[in-house]
Each structure stands twice: as C-alpha cells, then as structure tokens.
C-alpha cells in the first residue's frame, strides 16, 4: 500500500524563496486534490484527497500573524 504525506496544519515556507504559500497556491493544491479524488478508483484514495483538500482550504482561511 502506498503511503502519502498528509497536508500539515501549519503552512510551510517555500524552500526556494522562504515565503509562506499564497492563498492561490493553497487553493490550487486543494483543487488538485479534488481532481485526484474524482479520478481515484479506490475509496481510501478518494478519502485521502478529500481530507487533504479540506485541510488545505482550512490553512488558506487562517489569519497570518505579522509579529
């Protein structure tokens, strides 16, 4: 069985330019997961992609502190 990393609950800095992902990048990630869920044949894979999409959208809606 293939293991996949889940979307974390904390936005990660982009390794190239050390910035937090933008809302549009997170939304594209979520959209990609939803497309994969539609294409998946196995229920557990569908559930994984749906959960990952929802987690990405929750991250996108969190306020970012500028302390």
Describe, in plain words, how this protein is organized in 3D.
By secondary structure, the protein is mostly helical. It contains two helices and no strands. The longest helix is centred in the last third of the chain and has 19 residues, at 43-61. The model is unreliable at 1-10 (pLDDT under 50).
Helices, strands, pairings?
Layout: H1 23-39, H2 43-61
Radius of gyration using CA atoms only: 13 Å
Number of strands: 0
N-end to C-end Cα span: 43 Å
Counting helices, strands and paired strands, the structural category is mainly alpha
Region (Disordered): 1-26
Biased composition (Polar residues): 1-12
Notable features of this structure?
single chain; 67 residues; mainly alpha; 2 helices
Brief description of this entry?
Residues 1-12 have a biased composition (Polar residues). The chain has helices spanning 23-39, 43-61. The protein has 67 residues and is mostly helical.
């Amino acid at each position: 069985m293939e293991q996949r990393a889940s979307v974390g609950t904390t936005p990660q800095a982009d390794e190239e330019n050390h910035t937090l992902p933008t809302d549009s990048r997170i939304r594209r990630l979520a959209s990609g997961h939803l497309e994969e869920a539609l294409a998946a044949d196995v229920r557990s894979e569908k559930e994984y992609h749906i959960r990952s999409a929802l987690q990405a959208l929750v991250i996108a809606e969190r306020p970012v502190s500028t302390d």
